[in-house]
């Protein structure tokens, strides 16, 4: 059976089953698994002979034919593929250019597990991930996040703030987007908002968790700052004049285009940072999440409340988002005590 046919089967399987938490697979997750399977399929076609001839007990011809199919992949072939992936993609990313970074190979290995779990279940194919001879590839250590300064955020908001020359659709929308980014939402959560998710009278909006496409009853309310409410009110006014105003999606594109996508949000944050006079290299929508966490903790909001608003179940996420400025918060907290003796 061809690789394309098996990949199509895998995609249908993932689209009609639940993950280990009992929820449907997110579309992004399905795409990641399918794309990794496609990359393995290409490798099998392009590098079969050079990677299989050394397999013990196999001729070059039979080995090459076997490896052209997923059903011919055993632990030796998979190890060779992952080694090739590491040398091709990860070594160039290492700081010294000689290796050390294995994050891409770790991701490729984890994503391919879905394909071989499916083959084991449907075709009784020996699962190489159950073989102790499969090589492990370490996940990269997570570096400290870059928390944006209050000055940076304030400057970006100033250049889009409401004014006589800043009442066009794009500027008003971008200001509202920047304001909502300061509320601690992930980019996908912001872009998935519908107009009916806003409850400005209660100073909240409702975010439906994206992991597993949960039902709306699982949504969590996000408290909004007064300035965010004002920015959203103004955006809704100019949005009403948009050609696609009848769409449910809250954020619409410029030039009467429909739903705003991540690429547009990413470009907006970079563009507004540059217009405010900053280097936009390390600025991304997700950077605002770290700043939001630091702002709340520095203002005395408890970690428990931060976790509840953000929808985190593990305290490790709080530590991850708060670690960048943890030392400074600790110093400020002690200084605020004044003389103790």
Automatic annotation (TrEMBL):
Highest taxon in the source lineage: Bacteria
Tyr recombinase domain location: 143-335
Keywords on record: DNA recombination, DNA-binding
Entry-linked InterPro entries: DNA_brk_join_enz, Integrase-like_cat_sf, Integrase_catalytic, Tyrosine_recombinase_XerCD
Family listed: Belongs to the 'phage' integrase family.
Protein name: Tyrosine-type recombinase/integrase
